[in-house]
Amino acid sequence: MILKEIEKMKNGKIENLKKWISEHKYCYAMLYLVFYLVVFFVLDFTMEPKYILHCALDDRIPFCEYFIVFYFVWYPAFFLSLVWYMLRDKWDFQQLWFIMFNGITFCLICYMLFPNGLNLREEVPNRNVFCVLVNLVRGVDAPVNVCPSIHVSSSVSIALVTARSKLFTEHKGRKAAIILLMFLISISTLFVKQHSVIDVVCGAAVSLVLYVIAYHTNWRRLLKGRWEVLL
Questions:
Q1: Nearby residues of 23 by Cβ (< 8 Å), 6 or more positions away
Q2: pLDDT at 5
């Protein structure tokens, strides 16, 4: 009896999920994340950098392992921001994926056409848990394919959409907190030596250009027909 009730509840949840998806087809845009992860890791493990990026400002920024906390926060923030806007506001979600996903696509194309990398890392002894986390990141994320920075580009896109979202009209403190967090994530890439200032500036520039397109053009009209399911 109990097993039947559990099975009934499970089937009910599945049916509700199917119904929600059928009524909100724009959520299919999230499938892009599969493409992104596959392409990113293929490039990460197969391409050799031809251009080593460096600028004078990189040498003036000290290594600070504590910023690895904000660097790590990017991973849940990246995914959860998409899910949150997808569930709360169709318009904001579409604006976010337009800026974020087009930005990621542009970054991936840059990596393929101009394979780049860094030579900023110095050996970090495991003197505390933050240093351990830094070395963990370095063990799985080689200093290649760094410019423009996807970490920064996606963080800036979240900050920009949040700044314009009507969902925070009565929650200005939350809006400010999210924008501040995205800023800290962006600069964390510099303090843990995962990116050059060049990468950060280029990553931010990519999202700023796409922000202008997203909010000052009728880009949805271009998706009518073939990609109308996303609208």
A1: none
A2: 40
**What parts of the chain have a pLDDT lower than 50?**
1-6, 8-9
CA–CA separation, 82 and 44 (whole Å): 24
Q: Phi first, then psi: what are they for 115, rounded to 5°? A: -55, 120
Q: How many CA atoms lie within 13 A of 65 on its CB side?
A: 17
The alpha helices in the chain, defined as continuous H runs, are 2-23, 32-46, 56-60, 68-88, 90-113, 129-140, 150-164, 172-191, 197-216
Q: In this structure, which amino acid lies at residue 122?
A: E
Other Cβ atoms less than 10 A from the Cβ of 115: the count is 16
- 227 near 31, Cβ under 8 Å? no
Query: How far is residue 127's CA from residue 11's CA, in Å, rounded to a whole number?
Result: 50
Residue 43 tokens, joined: 């490039």
Helix axes 129-140, 68-88, angle to 10 degrees: 70
Whether residue 172 contacts residue 145, with contact meaning beta carbons closer than 8 Å, is answered with: no
